[in-house]
Amino acid sequence: MTARYTSTGCRLTVQVNCFQIKLQKMGSARCKAALFDLTGRVAVVTGGNGGIGRSIALGLAETGAAVAVLGRNDEKNQHVLSELKTIGVPSVAVRVDVTNRAGLEPALNRVESELGGIGTLVNNAGNVSLSGGVLQEKSEDWDSVIETQLNAVFLLSKLAAKSMLSHKGGKIINTGSMYSFFGSGLVPSYSAAKGAIVQLTKSMAIELAPYNIQVNAIAPGWIETDMTAPVRTMPLNDEILARTPAGRWGQPEEVAGTGVYLASRASDFVTGTTIRVDGGYAIR
Question: Which pLDDT belongs to residue 32?
Answer without folding.
Answer: 53
